């Protein structure tokens, strides 16, 4: 198990320490080599991300086939849910010869993670080697799942770095991060905190108001970062503020990393013009089933073939297809033919690809959605995504707003949901939103959905967000 995974349970205690103590401990930790912090798996995955770029299609399929058989065999033998479903569908792992044979394998829905979580967990992986994570994802359906300690997090780190290097990232770069970090739950509270373990400046995603943006710019300029890592919505708010006030971006950076929200090409062009650097996009999700990022020289998204197996559902009337993925390497809780609820447009253009891997030109993932506080703060719904067990026992959640500073939280409970937990859920939401919101809780039979039948994180009746 990696040092990162061993120390992860102590993160909460570390964050409560006095600033001076955190700085001293964090500075020492920062100088520990990555191979020691993240373990052997990190080194192996880092090498793999480089090697695969030289592989032939046959070599790629050989690797995928090996990992796919390993995942399916493990699931059939050690995960009761898959064992039963494979028998029910008469799916025989030993008869698997090519990707087309996966059509006989049953799909996995988000609701299955809610209703059958214990049966999806491998009986062969001890509890101490499992890490429980939850997410609301891009759909407003909160799901919990297990990652494999010593494997899942080092793998994610290696692949993220591999993508970022396409945009100029280097080990040891100083980052300014605006991605959901809570610096202060007060509406007029502090906007920044320093992470000495990585030499990163963490800026609040919850205080981006017109009268605070100069504070953000000053904090960034004083820190002298190499890279800005931000939600697209946060970067667009800063860019539009600079343009409207006739200011110029004064901090040279190598790249702007934009993930977790949909960023359109016109919006990307605005960011490139304002920040004078490469704006890099990628697609992934907390379940860590499949991962795709832009190339070095193109804006197409390439799915890493060694990360997981990606399939695409049938086209809808607009040409979009659902992303369906099978995870590799996570034996604690394999996700097989998992319906992500995210939709993409496959790239079928001329031969301008950097890689022959599955390639898409557009991803319709989580949009830039906001709640508006009583003082005019715009709170990105992406930043509110909970990675604790706060939404356990709920089939779906949704925010509704038609008045600044007033929010209804709609929820669909499971049959065994403990309603006494509503107070702690409300408290957790208030901690994220801040003290200039009035929040009410409302149980509903079902949440509002999009035209595709996809759950929506928020029903917003106010005009919000960047205009580009």
Q: What level of helicity do the residues show?
A: 25-40%
C-alpha geometry: globular
Number of helices: 14
Q: Over the alpha carbons, how many angstroms does the gyration radius reach?
A: 22 Å
Q: Examine the coordinates and then state which fold CATH places here, giving the name of the CATH topology of the domain at 370-460.
A: GMP Synthetase, Chain A, domain 3
Strand order of the largest sheet: 4-5-3-6-7-8-9-10-14-13-12-11
Q: Largest beta sheet, briefly?
A: 12 strands, mixed
The CATH architecture category of the domain at 370-460 equals: 2-Layer Sandwich
User: Quick one: CATH class of the domain at 370-460?
Assistant: Alpha Beta
Category by helix and strand content: alpha/beta
C-alpha end-to-end distance: 45 Å
State the total count of DSSP E strands.
Answer: 20
CATH superfamily of the domain at 370-460: ANL, C-terminal domain
Mean pLDDT across every amino acid position = 88
> Hey, roughly how much beta strand do the residues contain?
15-25%
Q: Topology, pairings included?
A:
Layout: H1 3-7, H2 11-15, H3 19-30, H4 34-51, H5 57-78, H6 80-88, H7 110-115, H8 117-120, E1 130-135, E2 143-148, H9 152-165, E3 175-178, E4 192-195, E5 200-203, H10 213-223, E6 227-230, H11 232-244, E7 255-258, H12 265-275, E8 278-283, E9 292-294, E10 301-303, E11 308-312, E12 321-327, E13 338-346, E14 359-364, E15 370-372, E16 378-380, H13 381-384, E17 394-403, E18 406-413, H14 422-433, E19 438-443, E20 458-460
Parallel strand pairs: 3-5, 3-6, 6-7, 7-8, 17-20, 18-19
Antiparallel strand pairs: 1-2, 4-5, 8-9, 9-10, 10-14, 11-12, 12-13, 13-14, 15-16, 17-18
Helix pairs in contact: 4-9, 5-6, 11-12
